[in-house]
Amino acid sequence: xxxxxxxxxxxxxxxxxxxxxxxxxxxxxxxxxxxxxxxxxxxxxxxxxxxxxxxxxxxxxxxxxxxxxxxxxxxxxxxxxxxxxxxxxxxxxxxxxxxxxxxxxxxxxxxxxxxxxxxxxxxxxxxxxxxxxxxxxxxxxxxxxxxxxxxxxxxxxxxxxxxxxxxxxxxxxxxxxxxxxxxxxxx
Length: 187
Ligand SMILES: [Fe+2]
Known about the structure:
oxidoreductase; alpha+beta; 22% helix; 5-stranded antiparallel beta sheet; single chain; globular; binds fe (ii) ion
């Protein structure tokens, strides 16, 4: 289940806004220049689907986004607690960073939380199955896959040499709550 929480950057305890309404999430994020969409699979997608089946199921939406945002390649990544080096992978993206290209991710299954630092605010977007989020190049953000990661995403790339994270050096991420999927559902 996707949701959006908006904080002032100076206050990680009392959010200004919290909503799970997809239309409100899309609207608030669009106002901040961030693309959020809900996609529906064009073909049945079993839990065991391989990368080719995942890409086929969302082929039209993938092509539309590639054309609109000038992405040239996509891949499919599945992360679980069993993934090699998963703790280091989680830690790598927990510090605020930027990329030289848009970071666009579509969640096929599972969850993860993006924290986007914009205009003195932090927009926390918890993405779930069916969510497409694209963070503009140069926008400070971090990502928390949670203590028990489990998600499959389609990643979009603008350049063949891929996508590199450059730390901003700002320790802001440490002041904000970690992503706890079970707590998010209970709240
Ligand atoms: Fe990133």
